[in-house]
Amino acid sequence: MNNDKAWRKSTYSGAGNNCVELAVGRSTTSVRDSKRPGPRLTFAQRPFRAFLTTLRQT
Fold it and tell me: Is the pTM of this model over 0.85?
């Protein structure tokens, strides 16, 4: 998992803690909620692109 990667959030999210954060690695991307940083979703590159496409369509 991306334990050694830095977590980032969008600059659009402001100072609040109501954000989705990403940790991008060489072969995976992990997603977590800034309010609850424990659970995370980790995707390989292709499934992550499919995940984003699905989110954009909803």
Answer: no
